[in-house]
Amino acid sequence: MAPPAVRSWGELQHDLLVAIMSRVGAPDLLSGGAPRTCSAWWAAARDPLAWRRVDLRDWTARTSARRAAGAGATRGSISVQAALTGDLEVAATRADGRMEAVLLPEFADEGHLMFLAKRSPNLHYFSFPTTCMASDEFCEVISKLQSLKGMAVDESLVNYDVLLRVHQCCPDFLELKVFALYVDEDMASIICESLPRLKKLEIPNSDMSCAAIVKFLDCLEELEYLDISGYETSAISSSVLHKASRLKAFIWNSKFELGEFVDCSNCGEHNINTQEPCKCTMDNKVMDWLAGPSQTA
Questions:
Q1: CB neighbours of 156 closer than 8 A, spacing ≥ 6?
Q2: Coil, strand, or helix at residue 268?
Q3: pTM
Q4: How far is CA 94 from CA 48, 68, 247, in A?
Q5: Which InterPro entries match (predicted)?
């Protein structure tokens, strides 16, 4: 039997290469790895569709400093904040107005968020875990993001002024994630009264009172997805479970404990984001391509 013909990775379909690049991660793409590959991979890394979702949570200044050094600057002459701004500029340019989601690192500040609001006004989602942004500055950012559908923010920004501005400026806003140590009934009331149309609420790894959980379930009538996993209390009663039975997904403990999760029927990989298939889907597509056209008997 003749060995199978060797196929070049550069012959992969462009859309599949773009899908692969979108999963590589922005730090790796920004590091310059893609330009050193073949022209097909380089083109895929520059395709705006590969930059719809930009995850910079693991970003470091290393790659920006390397580029600055290549341009004649010294490593110490560029600050971390300026380096991150430079990479956001690159990402926004490559996205060409199609950037939909940006996940910022913990040290990102109000300047980075304002830059995104100005360069990507059609942004649908952002994650901004910073704890030191003033409410009025944040509201100014929100007023520029009228297409916003969701955000992840620190509990310091969960107040009436901020969330009401979100409700007023972003008619399609349906998803909220909060980084919080403790959630009581008062905070739950602020969320429910300010964002009554929420469909997805995530407050993981937080100590939460039973009254707060009940408030979410009773007051957010359009809620479909509630993730309060990662804590260990006795707040989950049979009454809470009964109220939560109307939800499409209720995640209330760790993946190794009780709760509702989505598992891939092929590899069993745990995944709570039903809109993004697990990595085995991409692996299968690549393997199908490598196998070549099916041979008829």
A1: 131, 132, 133
A2: coil
A3: 0.76
A4: 6, 19, 38
A5: F-box-like_dom_sf, LRR_dom_sf
